[in-house]
Batch of 3 targets.
Target 1
Amino acid sequence: MKKFLLLFLLVSLGAARLAAVPRDEIVARVDSCEAILREFQADATTRIPDAVLQKARAIVIVNQFKAGFIFGVKDGYGVVMVKKANNQWSIPVLVSAGELSLGLQLGADAIETVMVITDDNTPRIMFNQRFNVGVDAKAVAGPHTAEAERINKELLETPVIVYTKKKGLFAGATVKTGWLQRNDSINFDLYNTKYTMPELLYSDWVQPNQDVQHLMDYVKQIAP
């Protein structure tokens, strides 16, 4: 009986992930990621310093939540934006995310994370595989604006600098924060296109629509 229940829950979870997401919910995901970034920057205790944002070659914003009724399975989504070769920011591309807890959110219902990626190669890992943050690329906890003394050259050269609203990690501490994975089907619906993640991020073939423009404008403002 227990084995049957476990199998049923796993199949149900898988079916839920495969189900089509309505476009208004897709747009709501973009909006929620923008809200997360704005909330981070509005509070000095969570604000990402300008020195870190100036190093950004990509920004990932993740919203993670408990999806399992019994087992507390974590699920989530995020957006990634990259700086292209011409130093212009790309359109936001939605990704799937999981287990981005940093080990700090016991009992939490939602986890909000912002990652500043400082090189051009790391975002491309998601093209061909699930990207395990802190495993496929080194990741450290980032200092907030109030901790400017913790910013140094070594930290700024780390591929992934991770920010979370939960406390408990020293700036610069190495972290492993879970995985990110491309989700082409949801971006097909967001942009009404058949172009996939590489083209969406690194070409100019798809222009931003009004549903993503506000997020793009804000990222350009804080990380020109």
Note: The chain is about 30% helix and 20% strand.
Target 2
Amino acid sequence: MDWGMKNRLSQLMPGGRCFFMPIDHGYFQGPTRCLEKPGETVEPLLPYADAIFCTRGVLRAAIDPLSSKPIVLRVSGCSSVVGKDLANEELTTSITEIIRLNASAAGLSVFIGTDYEKESLKNLSTLVNECEDYGIPVMAVTAVGRELEKREARYLALACRIAAELGARVVKTYWCEDFEKVACGCPVPVIMAGGPRCETELEVLEFVHDGLQKGAVGINLGRNVWQSPHPVAIAKALRAIVHDNASVKQAHEIFKATKKTKSTAKA
């Protein structure tokens, strides 16, 4: 691994672990609850995140270049929730733009098993070919669109392995039962996505802890953080699990203590 690639990955994953904060949801679903003003949403959460995952539009318009964290730039799109198929994506951002924006990594979705499987994997291959020349890691996101039933180990292991085989340096996928089968079959670091928001913060802490124990190196959680009634508290608790090896019980105590402190401060 060359110096630039190794340096960027070390910034994104200090100590080999990571907590990415995704705010890219608007690229396919428009204004999202609690993310109407993404800069304001993410600002209090920055102390706990290692990187922000966002599009170039939001990066330019809403993220302070003087106080930002490393950026994983979302570079795929061209489909929406009101269109015919979320899997029908193309690359949206050139390598020149990725470099101009000083992104630490580039990310895109791949849709294994859909009508657009080949196109999305070709997007990945093209992006890897371009980014490798400049030492920029590519994160492949194993997207499932509306087909939530695909979030099972056999399918996710297949999708992650294919993404790694095509050159992704990092793969983002969903937590599932038997998550170790997903992680052990992927030769590059695996990061967990959050998916739909959980009912309780304890559920979030439990699945994150389980996934890390079974081979994930970190998390890429958005809605389960910034749609929480207590986003700073859950972010602090999640960081403790990711970077301090906190147990679920310890992290939940951090969540409750931080929530109480914040509530007292507001009062």
Note: The chain has a mean pLDDT of 94.
Target 3
Amino acid sequence: MAKREKKPAPIDRPKDIGAALFLELMMQMLAFFILLTSMAVIVEEKRLAALGSLAGTFSPLPKGANLSQGKGPAMPSRDIVDGSKAPKRTAKALTDVAKDLGIHGMYAIALDQDSVRVRFPEHISFAPGHVDLLPSSMKLMDKLAVIFTRPEVIEVRIEGHTDDTPVRGSIYISNWELSAARAMSVFHALSERGVANGRMVVAGMGDKHPIPNHPELSRRVEIILKFRPVTEHSEQSKKMSLSPPHRAAVSEPKMGF
């Protein structure tokens, strides 16, 4: 008959209970910091793709129907992931806002795959020589704040511009201060409506950036929206991932014996 293996001797309790508790606490803190480190190196594009995948998987509608396509109240996963169309989509939304509010002179155009410029002249938001927003422009600020808080927008650059007319009878000694104060007024209006302060940048441009052949647009406010970058490499990788891998029909001859 095989001999029974002896049971291992029980581990003695630690004599110093405080040291054991301290060691257990350190192990838990180590595991916690390892978890934080693993979360800190997550690639933003992959995180958004994962969110979109989960939104489509757990949607209560069949096949992850999308709200933007008019198929029901599902999470707009495709709109979050597809960053290449965000600038054009946002420019169109801003143009629709101007039409709905009956604002003439406001323009929004997609500069490239990562940015959109919004431009509106002085008469839309300010009285001549003043830095306080007109009451009639508050509805516009409400609409802009909703668009600027979208997850694909990562930066809102607010620029104040003036003409070269000397400032007289004002508390601002030059056009630089006047343009910066107007940009700050827009900043505060958007901040009060939920746009994160860390997402916004304010700049006073003075009269150094006039628009050729359009002197009436020198006194203006421009807002540059920056979006999550979409590179050609990422677009090509998506196409490659959808196509089956190419393999040669005949393998290359090996060198040597």
Note: Confidence is low (pLDDT under 50) at residues 63-81, 245-251.
